[in-house]
Design goal:
By secondary structure, the chain is α+β, with helices and mostly antiparallel strands. Among the domains are: 65 residues, 3-Layer(aba) Sandwich (MutS, DNA mismatch repair protein, domain I); 52 residues, 5' to 3' exonuclease, C-terminal subdomain (DNA polymerase, domain 1, Orthogonal Bundle), CATH 1.10.150; 163 residues, Dna Ligase, domain 1. It has a 5-stranded mixed beta sheet with strand order 5-6-1-7-8. Strands 9, 10, 11, 12 and 13 form a 5-stranded antiparallel beta sheet that branches. Strands 3-2-4 form a 3-stranded mixed beta sheet.
């Protein structure tokens, strides 16, 4: 094997964390996401809930129809992030390079540390054991010659599984007669396009490479390579500055027609974006506004800016963008920054040296928060950090909507 890659994937991560912390939830259909009667989707669910047909990204109303006796909970993202940090700290000790895919998922390059398949097997078992002993959760692990094969392997024996795919031939023997969606980058829409031409399995792709390439262009060429077991991608460590954007959004439980409220909500979202950006030492050089109207039509508006390093700058730009959109009832609103760069890449101004710029923005932020506090009878003092938590943010926004 030219390279040995491990893919680690936690089993029903959010639900497993909640079950670990509350044993009374064990063996019950647990659905994490929106609550019944709210707008939103399933973030994840326990394996007991999956037996009813519930799955991630399903509309919560559909989940409730399938599983009315389930236990529904909002996600506690901050708790999951803390657990995730524990997990990745364990996993990364075994790799020469680690690529974080999500809170509960990672690729690990163990080529040097393992030496061979037997060494990789020992590492995989150590990861599973330490994850269980130190964090109290189970994970599924795949060992393979490529990233695609490693991910396929980790999904093969879930939950608490282990599987190996040592070679391209082993990979092909496993998937050749499976649906095209087994291949990396083949989502629902791509699968439908292929199915429309009678291409339903990996074998069909192998037998019709020109057709796939004509239909899907570069993606088709990539999919065809995968269908022949070829994937030479390296494990690339994730860096926050490699992200394309940082954003935050909220979905209202009832459509909002009051655009003054939307401006106020943008202030809270801007604070959350600023908090995350500063945590990673990043600046945005553009601001984007996202809206989803009552009829599910979505729009985005953006503007290139000078380096954004404050909630006030993000908020002011987003409000200007909001002024120029069609005024219809809004279901979802979001704000973000893009064209990210590190703090060290920002050109300093005379205001920076005199501290006038930051002092002025701090004062503007205080005024902005004071306005919200008085308008909605909110109490931010000493509790602003809680606002960055997803559940607190959504509850605050809903309170504002009801008391406008």
């Amino acid at each position: 094997m030219d390279q040995i890659i491990i893919h680690v994937d936690m089993d029903a991560f959010f639900a497993s964390v909640e079950t670990r912390d509350n044993p009374n939830l064990r063996g019950k259909p647990l659905i994490i996401g929106a609550l019944p009667g709210e707008r939103g989707v399933v973030a994840t669910c326990s394996y007991e809930a999956r037996k009813y047909g519930v799955h991630s990204a399903m509309n919560i109303k559909g989940a409730y129809r399938l599983c009315p006796n389930g236990i529904y909970m909002h996600p506690n993202i901050d708790k999951y992030r803390a657990v995730s940090a524990q997990l990745h700290k364990i996993w990364n000790t075994y790799a020469s390079a680690a690529e974080t895919i999500a809170l509960d998922e990672a690729y690990l390059d163990v080529t040097e540390k393992a030496g061979n398949l037997e060494g990789a097997r020992r590492i995989a078992q150590a990861i599973k054991q330490r994850t269980k002993d130190e964090v109290g959760l189970t994970c599924s692990v795949g060992v393979a010659y490529s990233k695609t094969a490693a991910k396929t392997a980790s999904e093969e024996k879930k939950p608490d599984g282990y599987f190996e795919i040592p070679s391209a031939q082993d990979f092909l023997n496993l998937i050749i007669d499976r649906n095209v969606s087994v291949l990396y980058t083949v989502g629902k829409m791509t699968a439908e396009k292929l199915n429309a031409l009678g291409i339903r399995t990996v074998r069909d792709i192998r037998e019709n490479p020109e057709t796939v390439a004509r239909l899907l262009g570069k993606q088709g060429q990539w999919i065809t390579k995968l269908a022949f077991g070829v994937d030479d991608r390296k494990v690339t460590p994730y860096r926050p500055q490699d992200a394309k954007s940082i954003s935050r959004e909220v979905t209202f439980q009832e459509d909002v027609q009051n655009y003054d409220l939307l401006r106020d909500v943008l202030a809270l979202l801007a604070l959350c974006v600023e908090h995350r950006a500063k945590r990673h030492g990043l600046l945005g050089n553009g601001v984007t506004l996202k809206l989803t109207y009552f009829d599910m039509k979505g729009i985005t508006r953006s503007r290139i800016t000078s380096a954004c390093d404050s909630a006030v700058m993000i908020w002011q730009t987003a409000v200007e963008l909001l002024e120029n959109v069609e005024k219809r009832p809004v279901r979802l609103i979001g704000v973000g920054i893009y064209n990210l760069s590190g703090e060290e890449g920002r050109q300093l101004t005379m205001d920076d040296f005199m501290n006038e710029s930051h002092d002025r923005r701090d004062e503007e932020m205080r005024k902005m928060l004071d306005t919200l506090q008085h308008r909605y009878k909110l109490g931010f003092a000493g509790h602003l950090a809680q606002l960055y938590e997803a559940d607190t943010l959504h509850k605050t926004v809903e309170y504002m909507r009801r008391h406008i």
